[in-house]
Amino acid sequence: MLNPMEKRTFEALGLSQEIIKAVAQLGFEEASPIQTAAIPVLLAGADVVGQSQTGSGKTAAFAIPAIEKIDPMSKAVQVLVLCPTRELATQVADEVYKLTAFKRNIHCVPIYGGASYERQLFELKKGVQIVIGTPGRVMDHLERGTLKLDQLKVVILDEADRMLDMGFRDDIQTILEQTPEERQTVFFSATLSKPIRDLINRFSRDPQMIKIEQKELAVPTIEQWFYEVPSRMKVETLIRLIDFHEYKLGIIFCNTQRMVDELADALLAQGFSTDRLHGGIAQAQRTRVMNKFKNSEFEFLVATDVAGRGIDVDDLEIVVNYDLPYDPEDYVHRIGRTGRAGKKGVAITFASGRDIYKLQFLERFTKAKIRRGTIPTVGEVEGKRAEQLYNKLLKQLQSNAFKKHDIIIDRLLEEGFTSTDIGSALFSMLLGDAPAASKKQAVEHSRERGKQEFSFAQAKGDRGGHRGDRRDRSRGERSFKRGRSHQDDRMGERGEPRRNSDYQASMDKDRSFKKGPVRKYSKPFKK
Fold first, then answer.
1. What is the pLDDT of residue 421?
2. How far is CA 343 from CA 108, 333, 337, 367, in A?
3. How far apart are CA 228 and CA 231, in angstroms?
4. Which domain holds residue 331?
5. CB 328 within 8 A of CB 365
6. Rounded (5°) CA angle 423-428-429
């Protein structure tokens, strides 16, 4: 039983330069625990039985060694991956496509029920080295003679327990019986029931057990919330939460360098004072960014786990898990950045699809409750901002510490406007309730200004901003265009349909909202 004490870089796992380049392009900086444990064993050719939680990175754990074993000069099927559902088969295929981006002449095809036979036949006749499919459709192709496994090198059963629960046991046995005896057999299963053990004993040879055991960790005493939100709506949700709760200093964690860059750019475009930190940034620049963040020279730091280790900033208000980490220990390290020295801290996590099950595991692992949060509607955000403006104005009036503008007010009164109209117009300007034409001009001005500032920051080699930049800018000038991540929200982490009931209910409330808020939000996504 392997249990790596620390993670390793992909370079240290003895992989080819093509795979290392593909992984770097995806933005991953370290191998997850299951990848660190499984990849060397699989590269050595041993049969493996792996146990790991959903979302731990096990797809890459078995896909990378399998890709490395392929002979690109042969067009025969050399790797077979069996999955319980077409959603999971499609997801595995997508990841294989990305991992083979720099491997020439290596092709894969997903085959599953509900899709056209003709397309699958066309791909199989062209010649593919990797087949990823559901047991039923794989059996159909075997019976038709359109799929041959006589030169198979590796067979992988992903979520084997789920396939047995779905009644695929006979199909799996028939498929395995038609593969060469000298093949490498890999089982990944969350549980090891007796039927699974029977399959392992019958079709594998002296398999090595790889199980990632986690020690229980105590989490800091801070508020922990999660919000169920589709991937493509994360940016808008993040902005709503920041505006509604008035967070001023926080860290936003992402899993990849690419996601860090995308999110940091999106926040900069919306006028937030933001900078980024990940392994792709030179050490000297990383040091400058950290020093600026510790001095509160900008509001939000977007970072990966590798770059985020050792961050110690006083008065940090919030930590955001924009992506759920693969390792529960990383979750604890992340949220531990806030709530220090007895101060109040908040940690929020975005989840969608099967991320919900990962959160349940995190609760058991940390023995702490992660409460479900309700995403504020556009109306609630505007109402909160109006209340904040009222309180600020009341305090200013009570202190009598303001400059008199009697001349301007008198001129407006002489024009026939009432004091109520004058006050309402000023409030509308501050809250962004301008007419449609004016709002359009403000949106265009905001976008153009964001582009100019971002270009200037790039020219200086500093992608952050000063804390005063966002405060000094009129909130009415800032707009929001829908942010999209590189992930597709239609499916969850492991191919499950998204669960968006709470988010949809929140967005439905916004459909009747007519006046533009301080920040112009995108329309709700269509059902």
1. 80
2. 52, 17, 11, 21
3. 10
4. 215-371+431-527
5. yes
6. 100
Same domain for 158 and 262, yes or no, is: no
Q: Which two tokens stand for residue 273?
A: 């004072």
Q: Would 336 be classed as within a structural domain?
A: yes
> Residue 346 sits in a domain of what CATH number?
3.40.50.300
Total structural domains within the chain: 2
CA 253 to CA 275: how far, in whole Å?
12
Query: pLDDT per residue over 210-256, tens digit each?
Result: 987 655 444 556 788 999 998 889 999 999 999 888 888 899 999 88
Q: 342-384: per-residue pLDDT in tens?
A: 567 789 999 987 788 888 888 877 778 888 988 888 888 777 7
Same domain, 236 and 364: yes
Q: Which amino acid is present at 21? A: K
- Parts of the chain with a pLDDT under 70: 1-7, 53-56, 213-221, 306-312, 314, 339-343, 431-527
- pLDDT at res. 241: 92
What is the helix (H) or strand (E) element at residue 359, kind and residue range? helix 355-366
| Residue 480 identity (one-letter amino acid) | F
Q: What's the token pair of residue 227?
A: 């919000």
Strand arrangement, sheet containing 346-351: 274-277, 300-303, 250-253, 318-321, 346-351, 223-228, 371-372
CA distances from 169 to 114, 172, 180, 221, 429 (A): 21, 5, 19, 46, 67
Half-sphere exposure of 245 (CA within 13 A, CB side): 20
Tokens of 211: 């199980």
